[in-house]
Amino acid sequence: LVVTFFSLFIAIYAAFVGSASYPVATEIVSTRLRSWTVGAAVSLSYLLAWVTSFCSPFFINPENMNWGAKYGYIWAASNFVTSIFVFFFLPELKGRTLEEIDELFERGIPAWKFKTTKTTIMDEALKEVQTKDSHVEKAKSPDQVVEETRLE
């Protein structure tokens, strides 16, 4: 029974959480902190995996704790805590650029409001480009500069 539920847990983890953790870890952090954050997350993941694999035999071994299938309560509690964390602290990033994500974090927007909050960084960038374009139009064209140079 324990092996069955452990296998089921590993299959579900690998299909959903495990495959989503790396993309989320790389998209949700600031660009300048990305390499450090991903390295720290992977290191912590390996450490926790080692602790789990080291402690698991003691929990289910009849000579030690003899929990047997009760060992699943640890996983149920950890999954409950993780689901609460995901709901309250993991923002929706679909359709957002890295710059928009940085802006939302800088403004201190709660994770559950990321989806509905309007960002201004793209509007500001568009205005900046339009301002530069209008200054370029007012300047002399390259042909005019070449003609003036020939005349001198």
UniProtKB/TrEMBL annotation:
<comment type="similarity">
    <text>Belongs to the major facilitator superfamily. Sugar transporter (TC 2.A.1.1) family.</text>
</comment>
<keyword id="KW-0472">Membrane</keyword>
<dbReference type="InterPro" id="IPR036259">
    <property type="entry name" value="MFS_trans_sf"/>
</dbReference>
<dbReference type="GO" id="GO:0016020">
    <property type="term" value="C:membrane"/>
</dbReference>
<feature type="transmembrane region" description="Helical">
    <location>
        <begin position="72"/>
        <end position="90"/>
    </location>
</feature>
<protein>
    <recommendedName>
        <fullName>Major facilitator superfamily (MFS) profile domain-containing protein</fullName>
    </recommendedName>
</protein>
<dbReference type="Pfam" id="PF00083">
    <property type="entry name" value="Sugar_tr"/>
</dbReference>
<keyword id="KW-1133">Transmembrane helix</keyword>
<feature type="transmembrane region" description="Helical">
    <location>
        <begin position="6"/>
        <end position="25"/>
    </location>
</feature>
<keyword id="KW-0812">Transmembrane</keyword>
<dbReference type="InterPro" id="IPR020846">
    <property type="entry name" value="MFS_dom"/>
</dbReference>
<feature type="transmembrane region" description="Helical">
    <location>
        <begin position="37"/>
        <end position="60"/>
    </location>
</feature>
<dbReference type="GO" id="GO:0005351">
    <property type="term" value="F:carbohydrate:proton symporter activity"/>
</dbReference>
<feature type="region of interest" description="Disordered">
    <location>
        <begin position="132"/>
        <end position="152"/>
    </location>
</feature>
<dbReference type="InterPro" id="IPR005828">
    <property type="entry name" value="MFS_sugar_transport-like"/>
</dbReference>
<dbReference type="InterPro" id="IPR050360">
    <property type="entry name" value="MFS_Sugar_Transporters"/>
</dbReference>
<feature type="domain" description="Major facilitator superfamily (MFS) profile">
    <location>
        <begin position="1"/>
        <end position="94"/>
    </location>
</feature>
